[in-house]
Amino acid sequence: MKNLLYKIALPALALAFTACRPDQVEHLKDSKRIGIEAENWEVKRIMPNDLLHATRWAGDSLTATADSLLRRTLARELAAGGVARAIAFCRPETYRSVDSLAGVLKATAHRVSERPRNPASQAPLLAEEMRPDTVRTIKRLSQEVFFYQRPIVLNNQLCLRCHGEVGKDIAAADYALIKQKFPQDQATGYKLGQPMAAWQLSLQRNGVAEFWTMKTRKKWKEHKMPKLF
């Protein structure tokens, strides 16, 4: 009887191993995407401190993306046509990819300065008591709204061509062009390492909460250059 069982079991095992060869297994289509969706839809308990951490994380991600795109864009445009060409691209909050990311985060982003290039077009501060300074600020303004602020420091030599000292960093012809386009310009006279403005973001609670729960979200990569407008 025992020999009979061996005779039956061995061919069955051989058949099973043959049937499970990797080249014959039909894999579930889009299994990676399904796993990501399952992870993101998993119910998670979010505490108030989690939302503040998510606000900082979301704000850092959005502003770092905008600053990186701005540096690359200005380098390209300055090389192609100098200040006359680059000056039109110095508003990263209007870039299409930045605006798209803000939409995902349900955020409104502005850059504010006490010495703006165009005072007439500067957005009002999101909180009157929060003046642009050198401190990163994260606060909950209400049950549904979070506030994020981060200083903008002039740390790129290229920025001096529009925001440095007139006659030293900014050529006379370029300064005349800036004054022609922005008669009330105040954004010159800066030095490397000096804070010159601040990012201010207003973020909705549901956008912050969703960002916190998305463990599988992809980070923006420098080597990818999205369309700007």
Automatic annotation (TrEMBL):
What InterPro entries has UniProt attached to this entry? Tll0287-like_dom
Where the record annotates domain Tll0287-like, the positions are: 106-202
Pfam families in UniProt = Tll0287-like
The source's superkingdom equals: Bacteria
Cite the PROSITE patterns for this sequence: PROKAR_LIPOPROTEIN
Name this protein carries in UniProt: Tll0287-like domain-containing protein
User: What organism is this sequence from?
Assistant: Hymenobacter artigasi
